[in-house]
Amino acid sequence: MATKKVGITGKYGPRYGRVIREKVAKVTKKKKHSCPHCKRPSLKREAAGIWLCKKCGLKIAGKAYKP
Fold first, then answer.
1. Phi, psi dihedrals of residue 44, rounded to the nearest 5°
2. What was the pLDDT predicted at 60?
3. Sign of CA dihedral 29, 33, 36, 40
């Protein structure tokens, strides 16, 4: 289970080292996902569980780290 401190990288536990887990967390947080409405890769995480499409303006609720 991911905690507030480690976020999405909580699934790795103590493995792989702190720096690698921090890099994974940074990349995962900034990653763009495909919008379910316009199908473009422009869906970005606005806050925990809130996703906004930059192209069509669709705002959806989803999971904390994946829509």
1. -120, 155
2. 93
3. positive
- Tell me the pairing of strands 43-47 and 59-61: unpaired
Please tell me the distance from the alpha carbon of residue 27 to that of residue 67, in angstroms, as a whole number: 15
Q: Is the pTM of this model over 0.70?
A: no
Give the model confidence (pLDDT) of 3-50 as tens digits: 667 888 888 888 999 999 999 988 887 888 899 999 999 998 888 889
pLDDT for 3 equals: 67
In whole angstroms, give the CA distance from residue 37 to residue 1: 30
- In 1-67, DSSP assigns E strands to 43-47, 50-53, 59-61
Domains in the chain and their CATH numbers? 1-30 (no CATH), 32-67 (2.20.25.30)
Q: What is the distance between the alpha carbons of residues 57 and 25, in angstroms, rounded to a whole number? A: 25
